[in-house]
């Protein structure tokens, strides 16, 4: 026969599936001998029966009665007994925390008779009636479904009649009348009476817990978080203890360490003469826990002892809720506690030092996002003004600068040494120079995956997106927000971690951790200053543990140097097109729109020395480490004037009767000719190289000459040529042939061997599907997961984010944007197909990833599992990726639920 | 020891890999006892050794000498012998036909001495010197690499000196001098002398054959056709026989049946007193073969006997080259002959009747493209003028109509009963109404996969694309081509099968086969008229053999009815968006740009009855058969005004100082707001349904109400709802839930059960990769291979075809556009993944394909192999798909090379 009820003495923390997290931890504490008020748990299995049949299992009634009898026998009093009633609480508790479910009904067992018994035995009539009032209110709301505001209105009316500011001033008579009003309210609203038999109260509360699993909010939450609908919840029944029985009673929460700093030593809050709910609600000001040592040294010492026992047992930060009832300490609940980023590092490191956990295990207690948080500077907001505007915290960190409204102005002022914040409605590739020049980017439109957000994160630039209450007037060169007009040049402080922009320059607090990674922090004697010691320790552990190598995406010598300081083991993606921006854009335009071969060759010729110099600088910064250089990739239109702009200008000239400008007319004709309806799916990547004569050769030559230059200078350049957007092996073969020709030419001209590996990006589904063929022509693979996500899902990052991602996230189609966290089922499956196909055809083939996902913690774990050799991410994310790669290499904790 | 030389008596037709197709067939004929001049074949294995080492295999010299000795012994004379020389030909012959390889050197064995012997033994001095001239010229060109035009120039000079119009008037002295000049020319150009030793001639010719495998043109051809580079070619050495030894000699080609009509009975051409090359070159007019019966009845009877033997042995049409040397018939070569479409059907049917092959085998002798050719009307071009312009034959057939230059004019004139030809530079979705109205479409730009071509083929409308010599002036409403200006309204005749447009109306010859499929051809007694009897017979065979069902893509009752007559077993794709065109476009625009809920609901309400009526008509036409209705799919911009147009118009108004038109300004603002950089990857398909309130519901309601209407009228409607562009199972689940709600509503309102299956398109890589999950929520799958090809390759049909497809086809990246023939390695792999995943999760899941590929012969075969249940194609292609599905079900012929 199925057992649907477990006494706290029967379970353990490994049984969270059946008992819920709360019930399992209560059983664990009981087993450990902690003073837990007796009780039992009705299992999730009982809930599942109820949900599927509409009735609890037939055995449940008898089992519940048996466990209740045992509880009553141990307590020496009965539930609802008139003279000295046993009271219990009923709480919901699933394996995972589930907002939207019914949580708690306290004081079950009180009714018009037993309330008098409670008054008599406790010696506190007001306490008894207040408890009864709490029960009727909670029961009416959560079990019987009456709108909670109706109870609040009744209370408010009574307070008004008596001219008292809060409930604590109401006397017994008031409370008796309130209880009556509440019972009338329930009967009127539900047509049913508040149940007086205590067993009936208990039965209804348990079934209400079960039914709440299918509440609208709970269902929506599960849908969104992809929690299976058939888990069900447990119901925990526990003997009531009271912290509100006078000065020798009270309630509190306690942590085994400080969850804010991670420092060792008990930490928490205490509220004398109060129930636990009063501590949590924050109505009254709590005392620091240490004051309990003076109020009740015995309980304090016991609490410390219990917390030590728990931390030693759970080997992690624990928090507990406790109540002292007339000098007796009870522990009501425990769990592994939440903590700040700083605390996570400090505690993990300390616990490893203390031998509580191994150093490898310590790694799993911290995360990449926590590390990233520690790397950003922060504002000191003491005395700061209110926010000017709020938006999506799209790229974390803090920056101060003068507001500018276009890219050119940003560049001009930055060149003059000013710090600027670029403000746009939204950004495009044309804003890139300005974004590079700016300290922060602020946009009125777009979310975490908009162009501004993605590019800013890639560069580690602070960004707040989608500040929808802001009106940007680029013509008047001002923005309007919160009633203020901010003109160009005004200074603002942008907090990209919080998504807040304030007027004026707030003081910045630099991150010690960032100084450490930038190499400024370690003292001359090689020591590491205290605040970053835990980070240092865990990074060393991660580097020792990880199998994945970490490279950086970098397009300039400065970025390359920084990436190297952050621990990058090479460059996984050097985008040549970023060298085609600014002034050189004109040259690229000339290549693309060239009227003839001579014109095109001249433009290409002008690009060559510029590219060579850039590349030589990067190879120097990464001397001895691999630098993967991607050939020109982006859609043509990114280098060309906008068609609509040109057409409008021409039409306006014509309307004004002005003579036709032949150059503009030619540009309009050319741009019209090569205009693409879907540039992302157009003539780009390897296609461009195979179609525009000389484009491929000039890029390969720039790489080869840079290698030759570095070798002559005594360097050890390790350039690798990467072909973008390959879909078919023939494309790769044609590029390889041409690259080989150019490399041989430069080797002959320079008398230096400039041979480079040639590999391919895997960024189209077809490349992944035909990876076996590609591997025979490729020296390496590198996944471009941005494009691969676009084509696998059939949507473009730039177009769809605002259009339907919010709705999709809300309705549970995504848990996270697939552009931020790798989509394991779709894109991930292609990655696995490509790895298997590539390695089967080319054993030992080196495979990396250079898409945005290379710096995302969950994605790094996936790439480790998929057997990649390295991830490449922005320089700023390199430490994050190192840490995550280390974590990924540590097997999952065998321990049960936390 | 490896045998590198095979006598004709040693091989057979199964050895084409080793002996090449030519050598294998010569051996086969020798085995059959046909009079084949003796000879031997040097194997492809010898060629492969030569190609990889640069030297022939060491054994070859000895083996060659042995086989030559045997040949000489049998002939009773020796190669190059001065008094009575043996002469041989050397020809190349790979397993597959390879343009660009060296083909033939005749008369090897002649030199300054043996030419005199040949003159003496043949009794014809001129013949001997002309043969020598031929050898030196051919050898010089193909073996020694001299530019052929240099020999032609020498000949022309001599003719001029002697004032003779052709070589046959040159006398022996002239020929002697010419041979001398030719030898001098060779020495001068190559620095080497024409080799006199006959064995050296043979050796050099054989190696030249081998070396020609790696000629530039041959390599390019192989690359393009994906023929492996390491096959190599064989070299065939055969005793010369001469048809140019007087009136009792001659050469010809003969077929076992008429390759033009398929009629039984020997057929061919004969040229008395001529070598084979003279027949092929067409310099002299040949006689019909039947005249040989009078000229040489014995040889004619023998030839007939040999041909009967060959056809009986090969069980297919054979053709031969033959020579009669002084009354003796020799067969020099045979192969399975090429044939016209009509001949293919007639012969396959006849051969099955004759018991030569089985009826199933007969199916494999005809193809879908051949059937399609027979279905089109043709022009009677007797006395027709020259072409006005030529272009790509993009959609076959013939049509006559008045030239119009925009969609509106096409619709206006068509509505007035006029037949029109729509002429555009290129077409877009906006031209669709005009394309539907037109009899033919002619464009100046784009190829076989341009919008015009794809849409026209889909509709079965004649189309000529990429007529680049034509200038279209839409403003002046005329086109200029070949010096003529053609104004709007002028009548032209467009031949979409040939890609030719002529001025004026040519008479049209209707296709009997098409009349047959349209149900007009069968006589009242159920008999089938003669011209279509073979088609009828093979279609019956195909229908009996095929496992794939064939449905049609149809959006109107007319198309549905036609598809049904053509044998469609349902509709696999009914596109609701085609019902949103014309006047209704305004309503869709209103839905999308609606300022509020009320405005949008009004627009949706207006669409409902229109859609319901359309759908009811289609369900009526397909009563009893499934009709799969796809919910709205295309990108938003297809329904909206063009952004650039609106912007230009607004700017011009502003420049002219005209007051702002508020409605236009609102439209511009709205279109700007939802403008997408890549609409193909934007808000479309299921996303639109999940984001625009009410859009999904109104479409489902229209379907449900149409079903109810048909059921009340006593029909048996079988509507199926298909969700487009699904990437994630949650999307499908959300749509199913909403559809179920609407279907239940309509069932309740109408008291008719309107339940419909709900299935999904598989047209994104992610859908294919997660097919297992989708299958749990889907009643059926239908592959949308157009979109799947776009996303798998990462290019959009509309954008890339002109930009790089020509280069890609030329360089061998594609064999065919992946939009025309399914890409087996990439898209095909996704299809197989999805079929496996879908059927594993949902056994018996119905799976079809409704993309353009459903009517492509090679693709139909793939879909059969991949285990699909049906293909769906345009109504016009239904017979083609039926035939191909039947062919696909017949196992490959066990017979060797043909």
UniProtKB/TrEMBL annotation, chains A, B:
Tell whether Cell wall biogenesis/degradation is among the UniProt keywords. Answer: no
Q: Which InterPro entries match?
A: ATP_grasp_subdomain_1, PEP-util_enz_mobile_dom, PEP_util_AS, PEP_util_C, Phosphohistidine_dom_sf, PPDK_AMP/ATP-bd, Pyruvate_phosphate_dikinase, Pyrv/PenolPyrv_kinase-like_dom
Q: Which reaction does it catalyse?
A: pyruvate + phosphate + ATP = phosphoenolpyruvate + AMP + diphosphate + H(+)
Residue ranges occupied by any PEP-utilising enzyme mobile domain in the UniProt entry:
418-499
Keyword annotations for this protein? ATP-binding, Kinase, Magnesium, Metal-binding, Nucleotide-binding, Pyruvate, Transferase
Q: Which co-factors does it depend on?
A: Mg(2+)
Family, according to the entry, reads as follows: Belongs to the PEP-utilizing enzyme family.
Q: What protein is this chain from? A: Pyruvate, phosphate dikinase
């Amino acid at each position: 026969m199925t057992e649907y009820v477990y006494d706290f003495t029967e379970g353990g923390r490994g049984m969270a599936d059946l008992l819920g997290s709360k019930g399992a931890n209560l059983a664990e504490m009981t087993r450990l001998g902690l003073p837990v008020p007796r009780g039992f748990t009705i299992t999730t299995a009982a809930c599942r029966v109820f949900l599927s049949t509409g009735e609890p299992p037939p055995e449940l009634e008898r089992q519940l009665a048996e466990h209740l009898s045992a509880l009553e026998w141990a307590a020496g009093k009965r539930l609802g007994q008139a003279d000295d009633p046993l009271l219990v609480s009923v709480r919901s508790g699933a394996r995972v925390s589930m907002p939207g479910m019914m949580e708690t009904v306290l004081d079950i067992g009180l009714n018009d008779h037993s309330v008098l018994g409670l008054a008599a035995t406790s010696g506190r009539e007001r306490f008894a009636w207040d408890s009864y009032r709490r029960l009727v209110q909670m029961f009416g709301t959560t079990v019987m479904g009456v709108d909670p505001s109706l109870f609040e209105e009744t209370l408010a009316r009574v307070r008004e009649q008596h001219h008292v500011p809060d409930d604590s001033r109401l006397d017994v008579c008031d409370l008796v009348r309130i209880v009556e009003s509440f019972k009338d309210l329930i009967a009127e609203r539900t047509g049913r009476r508040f149940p007086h038999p205590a067993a009936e109260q208990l039965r209804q509360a348990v079934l209400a817990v079960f039914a709440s699993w299918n509440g609208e909010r709970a269902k929506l939450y599960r849908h969104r978080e992809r929690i299976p609908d058939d888990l069900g919840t447990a119901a925990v029944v526990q003997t009531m203890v009271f912290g509100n029985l006078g000065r020798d009673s009270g309630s509190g929460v306690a942590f085994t360490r400080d969850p804010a700093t991670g420092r060792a030593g008990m930490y928490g809050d205490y509220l004398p003469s109060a129930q636990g709910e009063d501590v949590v609600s924050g109505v009254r000001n709590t005392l620091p826990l240490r004051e309990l040592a003076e109020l009740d040294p015995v309980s304090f010492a016991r609490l410390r002892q219990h917390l030590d026992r728990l931390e030693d047992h759970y080997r992690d930060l624990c928090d507990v809720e406790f109540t002292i009832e007339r000098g007796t300490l009870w522990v009501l609940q425990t769990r592994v506690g939440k903590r700040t980023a700083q605390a996570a590092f400090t505690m993990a490191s300390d616990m490893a030092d203390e031998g509580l956990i191994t150093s490898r295990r310590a790694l799993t207690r911290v995360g990449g996002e926590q590390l990233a948080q520690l790397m950003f500077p922060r504002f000191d907001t003491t005395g700061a003004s209110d926010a000017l505007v709020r938006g999506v915290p799209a790229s974390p960190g803090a920056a101060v600068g003068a507001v500018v409204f276009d890219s050119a102005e940003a560049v001009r002022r930055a060149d003059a040494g000013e710090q600027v914040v670029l403000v746009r409605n939204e950004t495009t590739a044309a804003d890139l120079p300005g974004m590079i020049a700016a300290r922060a980017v602020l946009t009125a439109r777009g979310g975490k995956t908009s162009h501004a957000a993605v590019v800013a994160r890639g560069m580690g630039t602070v960004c707040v997106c989608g500040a929808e209450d802001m009106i940007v007037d680029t013509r008047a060169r001002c923005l309007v927000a919160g009633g203020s007009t901010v003109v160009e040049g005004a200074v603002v402080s942008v907090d990209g971690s919080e998504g807040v922009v304030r007027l004026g320059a707030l003081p910045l607090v630099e991150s010690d951790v960032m100084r450490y990674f930038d190499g400024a922090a370690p003292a001359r004697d090689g020591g590491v200053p205290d605040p970053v010691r835990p980070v240092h320790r865990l990074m060393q552990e991660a580097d020792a543990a990880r199998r994945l190598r970490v490279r950086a995406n970098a397009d300039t010598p400065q970025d390359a140097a920084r990436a190297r300081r952050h621990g990058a083991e090479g460059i996984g993606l050097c985008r040549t097109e970023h060298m085609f921006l600014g002034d050189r854009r004109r040259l690229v335009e000339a290549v693309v729109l060239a009227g003839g071969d001579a014109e095109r060759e001249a433009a290409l010729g002008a690009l060559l020395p510029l590219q060579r110099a850039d590349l030589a600088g990067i190879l120097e910064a990464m001397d001895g480490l691999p630098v993967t250089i991607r050939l020109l990739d982006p859609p043509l239109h990114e280098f060309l004037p906008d068609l609509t702009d040109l057409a409008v200008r021409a039409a306006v000239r014509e309307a004004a009767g002005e003579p036709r400008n032949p150059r503009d007319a030619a540009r309009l004709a050319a741009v019209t000719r090569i205009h693409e309806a879907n540039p992302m799916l157009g003539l780009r990547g390897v296609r461009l190289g195979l179609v525009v004569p000389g484009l491929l050769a000039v890029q390969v030559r720039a790489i080869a000459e840079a290698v030759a230059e570095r070798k002559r200078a005594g360097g050890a350049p390790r350039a690798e040529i990467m072909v973008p957007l390959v879909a078919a092996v023939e494309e790769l073969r044609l590029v390889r042939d041409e690259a080989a020709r150019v490399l041989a030419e430069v080797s002959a001209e320079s008398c230096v061997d400039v041979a480079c590996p040639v590999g391919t990006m895997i960024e189209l589904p077809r490349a992944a599907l035909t990876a076996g063929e590609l591997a025979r022509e490729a020296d390496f693979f590198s996944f471009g997961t941005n494009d691969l996500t676009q084509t696998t899902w059939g949507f473009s990052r730039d177009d769809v984010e605002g259009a339907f991602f919010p709705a999709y996230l809300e309705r549970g189609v995504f848990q996270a944007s697939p552009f931020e966290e790798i989509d394991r089922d779709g894109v991930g499956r292609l990655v696995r197909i490509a790895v298997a196909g590539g390695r089967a055809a080319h054993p030992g083939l080196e495979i990396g990833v250079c898409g945005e996902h290379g710096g995302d913690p969950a994605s790094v774990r996936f790439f480790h599992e998929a057997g990649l050799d390295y991830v490449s991410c922005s320089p700023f994310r390199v430490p994050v990726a190192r840490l995550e790669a280390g974590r990924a290499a540590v097997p999952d904790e065998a321990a049960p639920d936390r």
